[in-house]
Design a protein that fits this description.
The protein has two domains: about 130 residues, Aspartate Aminotransferase, domain 1 (Alpha-Beta Complex); about 260 residues, Type I PLP-dependent aspartate aminotransferase-like (Major domain) (Aspartate Aminotransferase, domain 2). It contains 15 helices and 17 strands. Helix 4 runs parallel beside helix 5 and helix 12 crosses helix 14. The chain binds pyridoxal-5'-phosphate.
């Protein structure tokens, strides 16, 4: 039995009342972005209707109010991830920008030719391409930890690859394709014992389980508001105390400076040193409402609910002979993401049939092309769950898959 009252939760999400192709919407694309509760939408409207103003600059009431609300969310975010204080939390546009910030502001300052960065083969392009650009410009070498047959990282690869030249280990907490939850605390311990820093891509973990950056002992953590009931256009970079002070600025401009002379400038205190220009005030404030919503549910309850749905989905999908599931077999070892294929039917065709059933899934390479190559497939379909999903929605997904199997049967049975 789920520890979340899904019926009540669903009432909070206006979009879940709509139909798609005449069928009730079954939204199973939560790893891409989640739907927004009324509280988040209301916070946005309330800001624009009542205290829209630029922050940190004005001395008028509206600006003071907007500044206070914006900074409150920084504090809320810090609490939510177990960070020691708001000065360790930088608002960016998304996970991608947070990782690019580290690549520019830390990487370009500290890394030298021949230094090494350890990544894994399951990384999202967001945690790969910024390091490729850095490697191209600095002569840093990238190394990759492989996965085993169940999609788990190979521990011996970490032991072998993290060496005296390793400066950074940058890993996803949870794979957006395999669902694998990685042992980031153990990895951080090993990396630190060998003198390397650790960046955790928390895009798929922070929204779905209790994450404590202090307990995990990571140096950086990146995640996106839009994947955790919040609006688009807000990301977070957590950095261990002291790191932001030492690093170079990322973008230059207003807000991030202290004193500006014609030829040179000095920098604002952290975290504002990394928030050049007018930030996304309205969406940060609405992100605060998303955090409150998740806190009210309780992150352990969110995780338990998703584990239940994932276990149900894994069992149901395993019962279809033509289905191949990627990633660990047990729900315990994975988050609420299930990537699969139906015979050799292209996942886009499968996605189109599912769409006719009102079921929204993702189909493609999921911004993880090296992983697709490693799995020896071009693309997969992917169902991903969140707090408002019900078990019977998995049944609807299966109905659609069975129909696709019948309709394209001659293709599916070729596999
Ligand atoms: C594991 C992982 N990392 C990074 C990202 C990038 O997130 P964003 O597009 O919000 O920057 C995603 C998005 O799907 C993801 O799943």
């Amino acid at each position: 039995m789920s520890s979340i009252d899904v019926g009540r939760v669903r009432d909070d999400f206006p979009i879940l009342r709509r139909t798609v192709h005449g069928r009730p919407l079954v939204y199973l694309d939560n790893a891409a972005t989640t739907q927004k509760p009324r509280a988040v939408i209301d916070a946005l409207v309330h800001y624009y209707e009542n205290y829209n103003a630029n922050i940190h600059r004005g001395i008028h009431a509206l600006s003071e109010e907007a500044t206070a609300r914006y900074e409150e969310v920084r504090l809320k975010t810090a609490h939510f991830i177990g960070a020691p204080g708001p000065e360790t939390v930088v608002f960016t546009r998304n996970t991608t920008e947070s990782i690019n910030l580290v690549a520019h502001a830390w990487g370009r300052r500290y890394l030298r030719p021949g230094d090494e960065i350890v990544l894994t083969i399951m990384e999202h392009h967001s945690n790969l391409v910024p390091w490729q650009l850095l490697a191209r410009d600095t002569g840093v070498k990238l190394q990759f930890v492989d996965i085993d047959d169940e999609g788990r990282l190979i521990w011996d690869d970490f032991e072998r690859l993290i060496g005296p030249r390793t400066r950074l280990v940058s890993i996803t907490h949870m794979s957006n394709v395999l669902g694998t939850i990685n042992p980031v605390k153990d990895i951080a311990e090993l990396a630190h014992s060998r003198g390397a820093l650790v960046l955790v891509d928390g895009a798929q973990s922070v929204p779905h389980m209790a994450v404590d950056v202090s307990g995990l002992e990571c140096d950086f953590m990146a995640f996106s508001a839009h994947k955790m009931l919040g609006p688009t256009g807000v990301g977070v970079l957590y950095a261990r105390q002291g790191l932001l002070e030492e690093m170079d600025p990322f973008l230059g401009g207003g807000e991030m400076i202290s004193r500006v002379l014609p030829e040179q400038s000095t920098w604002n205190d952290v975290p504002w040193k990394y928030e050049a220009g007018t930030p996304n005030i309205a969406d940060v404030i609405a992100f605060g409402a998303a955090i409150e919503y998740l806190q009210a549910l309780g992150m352990d309850a969110v995780r338990a609910h998703e584990k239940e749905i994932t276990a149900y989905a894994l069992e149901a999908l395993s019962a279809v002979p033509q289905v191949t599931i990627y990633g660990p077999r047990e729900a315990e070892a994975r988050g609420g993401v299930v990537a699969f294929n139906l015979g050799d039917l292209h996942p886009h065709d499968l996605g189109t049939v599912l769409d006719r059933h009102g079921v929204a899934v993702r189909a493609g390479h999921h911004c993880a092309q090296p992983l697709m190559r490693r799995l020896d497939c071009v693309a997969t379909a992917r169902a991903s769950f969140y707090v408002y999903n019900r078990l019977d929605e998995v049944d609807t997904l299966l109905e659609g898959i069975r129909e696709a199997d019948r309709f394209f049967g001659h293709v599916a049975t070729r596999a």
